[in-house]
Specification:
about 300 residues, alpha+beta, five-stranded antiparallel beta sheet, four-stranded parallel beta sheet, 9 helices, about 25% strand
Length: about 300
């Protein structure tokens, strides 16, 4: 098979994928999107005979537009531009999870500082404000007081890009010093880890300590539902533990359907172009091998679709 790899920088994650693909005898074309041109009907990128193109662009803008062009040319690409568009925007992400009945933190969006302050005051302190587009915990703030909230809102209001004029405010979820990252392929969990820190942000990119995590039935079902909600693909599903699940009557300690709003987890985000090097080190699972197994299946399915079209 021939695979294309869209990239702007080759990180350890991409090296792991490239090594696994080449060890299996696949041809791999590395496509540096910084050097390519995308026209309305064709591109100079070497993708025409690729069985599958894998999007590993570091920049969200490049990921969104490059995959959109490839899809328009009829080139099979993962993740799809539709999935990327939902995952890249926290508003779309939250709406998709809510529509699918996935427990997710209470969220409000406003477009002025004054309206944002009303949301913050109603959530109470602490609460959280996030950029609608961003990763690795950048530009996220935990608001502990009215003074802090006013300062953050003023700062965002003075930033140039229109996205900073969208105030995305969430409830603060008390978690046990960690969150859970699950790597999933079309909703099927590959491996999971906890990311622990004394800081309220527990991202591995922020220095959180990682450890393997065994998913229970409820968490697995939430991962599947959350993946379907955003369109499926190779995804990182982030969960937080919120305590014991309750039954509809409100008694604690009983397992409940995660769609009934009484879950021991909340899903705060689903990520595309997910990083997995830390997960590969923390888990006993050979993550690159599992991912390539899935990529081979996706390529076979795409080829069969072309032959029967």
């Amino acid at each position: 098979m021939k695979f294309g790899l869209l990239y702007s920088r080759i990180r350890k994650d991409e090296k792991l994928l490239l090594s696994e693909l080449r060890e299996r005898g696949h041809e791999v074309v590395k496509i540096d999107v910084r050097k390519q041109r995308f026209g309305l009907d064709a591109t100079d990128a070497d993708v025409t005979d690729c069985d599958l193109v894998i999007d590993r662009c570091l920049a969200t803008s490049r990921s969104l537009y490059a995959t959109r062009f490839l899809s328009a040319y009829g080139v099979p690409v993962v993740n799809s531009p539709e999935t990327a568009a939902v995952c890249a925007d926290k508003v779309k992400n939250s709406l998709a999870l809510e529509a699918a009945g996935v427990p997710t933190p209470a969220t409000e969006v406003t477009f002025t500082k004054e309206a944002a302050m009303q949301s913050i005051e109603e959530f109470g302190y602490p609460c959280v404000i996030k950029p609608v587009v961003g990763s690795w915990g950048r530009l996220m703030a935990k608001l502990d007081s009215e003074t802090a909230a006013e300062a953050i809102l003023e700062h965002k209001a003075t930033l140039g890009h229109y996205e900073h004029k969208v105030f995305y405010v969430q409830e603060y979820v008390e978690k046990p010093g960690r969150d859970i990252r699950v790597l999933a392929c079309d909703g099927e969990p590959v491996a999971a880890m906890t990311r622990s820190s004394e800081h309220w942000l527990t991202n591995a990119a922020k220095g959180g300590e990682t450890a393997t995590f065994d998913l229970d039935d409820e968490a697995e079902e939430l991962v599947r539902t959350a993946s379907d909600a955003v369109g499926g693909g190779l995804l990182g599903v982030d969960l937080m533990e919120t305590g014991e699940a309750r039954s509809a009557s409100g008694s604690s300690g009983e397992r409940s359907d995660p769609r009934d709003g009484e879950s021991r987890y909340t899903v705060h985000e689903v990520n595309h172009t997910v990083e997995f090097k830390a997960l590969n080190e923390a888990s006993d699972v050979d993550v690159p091998a599992a991912v390539v197994d899935w990529l081979e299946l996706k390529a076979e399915t795409a080829s069969e679709a072309v032959m029967t079209a």
